[in-house]
Specification:
alpha+beta
């Protein structure tokens, strides 16, 4: 197969949702229909059932939630699919934001009984800012739902995106009997299967078929035909160009737990989604390069390999206790054992231990193409956001940082664990599980951790104990706000500045000055008393890049 054909068949996407909308269940069902697994489990892993394939961490299986991102790769219907399963819990938003830098499209899962929820709105906005095409799946139609037309209206009024239903539900909750494919003008009637473990049997027919009429009660049949007539007359026509531009979302209805509508969703998504898109290189000075990198668009068919690391995860395989860096291939052809430039350090590195990923499982991969995500093992110098390339003129700046919202000191209460504790904490900080900052007058031996939500701290402690056998002590602080400070001569003597009680100066891991505030009033007081100093929500380099 030619390089152009290999690239064109790649589909790299993430599934986003509010917690409990059914994202991880849908991920599992995609694998089932893609023949990547033969028996689907359930999210909660009831007795005698498997835990969800994409949830590899024991803590995830215990709680029935996703708290880490996973890559799942499989072939389906001629497409090479890279599916990035992301955390749904709001406390792990940062991980999801980083993953969204590595995808070409997103599938938004909405609980049809609840409509658009807060976390869905947040993640949708991240996708919109990046111009990512978004497809929508209204899930849980086998339970009582909101009116389907109201759900479509909510997409348009709340999220501000045109919605074009591709598949329409026939019935609601107990009366849900199937879906109508508006593209093919065909009814898909479904039968329930035990625990949604196998592909649902499907009977395809027309809306005027007596078999359909016999399945639907009078109210459901009349309501469905009226709604379909309304959509045909006044709904947004399906516009592929608008979808690819992120201006319209195709909408599908179904039930992930019972496999209703999953085949239609998967087929439609892969058919109408986008192949890998070009990425932009930025102009920066890199060690050892003869000149700064070039600010330009890098085509996917550019002959030289390039890519960026968007996630680092340690101990996915408890047998080896290694560290894996997730790399999105952006251009050229990756081959195992190739030598590339690590732009941040300027060093040449050989990529010998490369893997195709399937949750916790992995297999050696010898080649990869733009759109693929590969796992690189054994490179401790790699960090999130690093560019690897054969062309020293390329550097990517894809990874955003976000202001944390909760803060706590972490320390080691057991001196005998000191070595294991330090090694474990250093590894977890490299992964970006949480951020760390250095405030002035910090307690001896304590590290200030900062995160979007408190559950991230729990994961750090749980992983220190389970993966490194190291105890830790967590102490909350009274800070609720962190701001980055624009450099200014007065920062050379912070004691001369007017600050309220409880405010602290500090630095991030790159030694950029930051300020920690107990509340909004103390921040406003600081701004009023020190008008020459500028505060920012993001690191200065991201502010300047805007």
């Amino acid at each position: 197969m030619s390089p152009a054909a290999e690239i064109a068949r790649r589909r790299t996407f993430a599934i986003i949702s509010h917690p409990d909308a059914g994202k991880t269940t849908l991920t599992e069902k995609f694998l089932l229909y893609g023949n990547a697994i033969h028996l689907a489990g359930t999210v909660t892993a009831r007795k005698n059932q498997r835990a969800t394939t994409s949830d590899w961490m024991a803590l995830e299986k215990q709680r029935g939630i996703s708290v880490s991102s996973t890559v799942l790769q499989f072939d389906y219907n001629g497409c090479a699919v890279n599916l990035l399963d992301t955390p749904g819990h709001k406390d792990f938003s940062e991980d999801t934001y980083r993953v969204l830098t590595a995808v070409d499209a997103a599938l938004m899962v909405i609980d049809a009984g609840k409509g658009v929820e807060p976390q869905t709105r947040k993640l949708f906005e991240v996708c919109r800012r990046r111009g990512i095409p978004i497809f929508t799946f209204m899930n849980k139609c086998d339970r009582p739902t909101l009116d389907p037309l109201a759900l479509i209206d909510e997409l348009e009024s709340v999220l501000g995106i045109a919605a074009s239903p591709v598949v329409w539900p026939l019935g609601n909750g107990p009366s849900f009997r199937g879906v109508f494919d508006r593209t093919e003008r065909a009814v898909h009637l479904f039968e329930r299967v035990p625990n949604g473990a196998y592909e649902a049997p499907v009977n395809i027919t027309g809306l005027d078929d007596p078999a359909v009429r016999g399945k639907l009660d009078d109210h459901t049949f009349n309501e469905s035909t009226e709604q379909l007539a309304m959509l045909d007359g006044a709904g947004h026509p399906f516009d592929l160009a608008a979808i690819h531009a992120g201006q319209q979302t195709p909408v599908y209805f179904g039930s992930a737990i019972n496999n209703f509508g999953i085949q239609l969703l998967l087929d439609g998504f892969l058919k109408h989604s986008v192949p890998p898109a070009p990425r932009r290189s930025v102009s920066v000075t890199v060690p050892g390069a003869p000149a700064p990198t070039e600010a330009r668009e890098v085509p996917v068919d550019y002959e030289k390999f390039s890519g960026f690391i968007f996630k680092i995860q340690a101990n996915m395989d408890p047998k080896h206790r290694d560290r894996i860096a997730f790399l999105r291939v952006c251009s050229g052809r990756f081959t195992r054992d190739m030598v590339v430039a690590h732009q941040r350090t300027g060093k040449q590195v050989r990529l010998s231990s490369s893997h195709k990923l399937f949750g916790q499982e992995r297999e050696t991969v010898d080649e990869a193409w733009p759109g693929d995500v590969i796992g690189l093992v054994g490179h401790d110098a790699f960090g999130i956001g690093d560019t690897l390339t054969e062309d020293r003129a390329i550097a990517y700046d894809e990874i955003p940082r976000f202001p944390p919202e909760v803060f706590a000191y972490l320390s080691n209460p057991t001196s005998s664990d000191a070595k294991k504790y330090r090694a474990g904490l250093e590894q977890l900080l490299q992964e970006g599980v949480v951020q760390s900052f250095t405030p002035r007058n910090a307690p001896p031996g304590a590290t200030l951790l900062a995160a979007v939500g408190p559950l991230q701290f729990e994961v750090v402690q749980w992983r220190l104990k389970s993966e490194y056998n190291a105890e830790s002590r967590l102490e909350p602080t009274n800070w609720t706000l962190l701001k980055w400070l624009e450099p200014h001569p007065s920062l050379a003597n912070p004691s001369a500045l007017v600050v309220a009680s409880g405010v602290s100066f500090g630095a991030d891991k790159f030694d950029n000055p930051v300020m920690l505030f107990p509340n909004d009033w103390t921040m406003r007081y600081f701004m009023e008393k020190n008008p020459d100093l500028k505060l920012h929500d993001m690191p200065i380099e991201q502010v300047n890049a805007k």
